[in-house]
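Why do we bother with a discrete structure alphabet at all? Because it lets us treat a fold like text: something you can write down, compare, and reason about line by line. To make this less abstract, here is a complete entry for Diaminopimelate decarboxylase. Read it the way you would read a sentence in a foreign language you are learning: slowly, and without expecting to understand everything at once.
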Amino acid sequence: MFNTNTINRFQQLDTPFYYYDLDALRKTLEACRTAASKYGFHVHYAMKANFNPKVLDIIQSYGFGADCVSGNEVKAAIEHGFGKDKVVFAGVGKSDREINLALDADIFCFNVESVQELYIINDLAKAKYKTASVAIRINPNVDAHTHHFITTGLDENKFGINTWQLPDVIKALKECPNLKFLGIHFHIGSQITDMEVYKNLCTRINEMQDWFNDHGFEIKVLNTGGGLGVDYYNPDTNGISDFESYFKVFSQFLNVKPGQEVHFELGRALVAQSASLISRVLYVKNGLKKNFLVLDAGMTELIRPMLYQAYHLIENLSQTESEETVHYDVVGPICESTDCFQKDVELPQSHRGDLFAIRTAGAYGEVMASGYNLRDIVGSVYSE
């Protein structure tokens, strides 16, 4: 990913920063759009993965919609050209202010996550003499077989409406004249690479669709959510997720009726491989049992390894020709013991000032940065 000219460019810049390979981003977006278009599927970009302004502008240019989980994400989506008819608003805790903002923007749909929320959106819409389109987010109790911090589709999770609550949903929809029922919504987790999981999801979606039909509700939209994973271990050889297999599963196993739309909400799979966190070695600490590389980037710049025990490939860009290797704990400068990117990783013998790349950081990287320890918020550099 990094040629000599790019590395020389990095040498002139203050670190840490996120480096965006915009060509890689465009290739990924094109692969997704091509695979989805075979089946007439609609893709919404999950903005929580990365809302870097330049990234949003590029994604919007490919015709994707926007999946938002806050009022400010709704606002940003519209400001960056995502048509209001392609904006959906999910989230287990939408505030009245956020709902009103979305109502004023006339967005496509609210993905509703509780029975109480139906009544609240109805009341707020009524006050504005509007009708709000809603999809019911159902908790399908499908195990995504991923990290327990990022699974969202089990009974024990806070997201969505459990199946035993669906009679109350029907009652609420009948009692809320300012709501327009569009369809059903699902999202079972993140970083899913096992296509059997999506096959199981299709089975549950089909069952839920039949249940609503039996109760007199016609479904226009089947929203399957997202969650497609990426290869964190081999970003150069496997830089684009398997969109072909992903969409094919839904084409084969989802019962789509004439006139229905199938929607997806992909985030990580679209942006993760487009960025790396670039950092420098501040100190090399050699001990009897441990060797430490202390970088100038830490959990304030990329918290995933500390929060989810997530793996990111770590590369020394300054020592690509070195044959001597050392096992290091690669850590950051933050005053927390958890501020460690990876333990006991084999790397070329490294020195103060060496440039490092922490790969596949385009999703849930820059957007989760903080100013803890009063650190500067990390900046961005682009390939063009």
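What the structure line is telling us, in plain words: The mean pLDDT is 94. DSSP finds eleven helices and 17 strands in the chain.
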